[in-house]
Amino acid sequence: MNDPVARENLPKVFNEHVVLAARLGPNATVLREVIETQAQVRIAEPTVEAVSEAIRVEAALVILTEEVLTDTTLAKQLGDRLNQQPDWSDIPVIILLTECKRFGDCLALLGQTTHQRSILLLELPLKRPIFSSIVSTCLQNRQRQYQLRNTLYQLTESNRALENFSYTAAHELRNPLGVVTSALMLLQKMKLDAKPKKIVDMGLRTAKRMNETVQTLLDYSRIAAHQNSDFKRVELAAIVRQSTIELQMVISARQAEVYWDQLPTVWGSEQLLVRLISNLIKNAIVHNNNDVPRVEILAEDSGDRWLIHVRDNGPGIAMAAQSEIFELFNRAGNSHAEGSGIGLALCQRIAEQHGGVISVTSQPGEGSDFHFDLPQDERP
Q1: Does domain 7-154 have CATH number 2.30.42.10?
Q2: For the chain, how big is the Rg over CA atoms in Å?
Q3: pTM above 0.70, yes or no
């Protein structure tokens, strides 16, 4: 997933400069005088390119005269440029009209862009106090956007630091944990009395679970940096088959039944999707108290994406716990449950890597339906 805010694009302070895209003349001079009481002004030709540059440098406000809208094609191009803003940005745009001659082209612009709320149409002539008040309001709105952008940046940096810490901590734990495991395995081969042997066996089981937790935590940290270069068209049925092969010991030990029928081709990472499906199937089996755990995988067409369901006949999940189960190290209120508490958080991260979301529908005693969406084909 791309960072919502790029480090190199973050100004240290609010960028209070206004782009006035107007041909030089008496009107432009008056407009400039009014704006300069509140912000710096950069004069530009009334073109679509001037608006593109204003967006690139994250100007506080763009004021255009109607020459930029000489035809519907240019109006649509302007709308496309506005749509290319970062998610946090909604740059205010004031379009100054003379006798509303370009009103039809303005409507074309409004129909093309998703930023209609930030576009203001004003008819000339305007009284100075009114225009000054409008500019002031636009600058205040833009300043709040910059504050939001800065907050997003801080959160992104904080999350990155936490992920780096998790990765480093897990990586540093592997070597000493490996030494402990090897020592316990050597002790296990020795002739020991019943009580010491029981303690060694318990320690070895705990060390192995700890090693699995550390490995899962490393995987969780790595997915954040996973690039989509290995995305391709993959058969979901092949993903499920591979998952069941990897889980054969778990499936056999519980005599579980895993069903799937016609599954589609999806766009994604084969490696990540195997991990996602494997985690959900394993989760459905190990948390199932039935004599025969049953898991069903099916797909539902939802337009340009497939909605994938992994259903089980397990004990279900209380409504209060459903909003928490995808959190890191959460075990749905059962601290004695098997597992690391990372599996579902990892599933959520993989779903997000594919541009989707994962959620659960469940009631106690009625099993659970974990569902997530995947793209049907390559996204532009």
Answers
A1: no
A2: 29
A3: no
Sheet with 294-301: strands ordered across = 257-260, 294-301, 305-312, 368-375, 358-362
Please give, one letter per residue, the 3-state secondary structure of the chain: CCCCCCHHHCCCCCCCEEEEECCCCHHHHHHHHHHCCCCEEEEECCCHHHHHHHHHCCCCEEEEEHHHHCCHHHHHHHHHHHHCCCCCCCCCEEEEEECCCCHHHHHHHHHHCCCHHHEEEEEECCCHHHHHHHHHHHHHHHHHHHHHHHHHHHHHHHHHHHHHHHHHHHHHHHHHHHHHHHHHHHHHHCCCCHHHHHHHHHHHHHHHHHHHHHHHHHHHHHHHCCCHHHEEEEEHHHHHHHHHHHCHHHHHHHCCEEEECCCCEEEEEHHHHHHHHHHHHHHHHHCCCCCCCEEEEEEEECCCEEEEEEEECCCCCCHHHHCCCCCCCCCCCCCCCCCCCCHHHHHHHHHHHCCCCEEEEECCCCCEEEEEEEECCCCC
Interatomic CA distance for residues 138 and 117, integer angstroms: 12
- The fold adopted by the segment(s) 229-380 is Heat Shock Protein 90 (3.30.565)
CA 212 to each of CA 68, 157, 174, 248, 328: distance values in angstroms, whole numbers, following the listed order = 61, 28, 10, 17, 15
- Tokens (6 digits) for 214: 């550390």
Most confident segment among 52-66, 141-155, 185-199, 242-256: 242-256
Question: Which of the residue ranges 43-47, 290-294, 339-343 would you say has the lowest mean pLDDT?
Answer: 339-343
Model confidence at 359: pLDDT above 70 = yes
Q: Where are the domains of the chain?
A: 7-154, 229-380
Rounded to an integer, what distance in angstroms lies between the CA atom of residue 93 and that of residue 19? 10
The per-residue pLDDT for range 186-239, each reduced to its tens digit, is 888 888 888 888 888 888 888 887 777 777 777 776 776 665 667 899 999 999
List of residues 6+ apart from 319 with CB closer than 8 A: 363
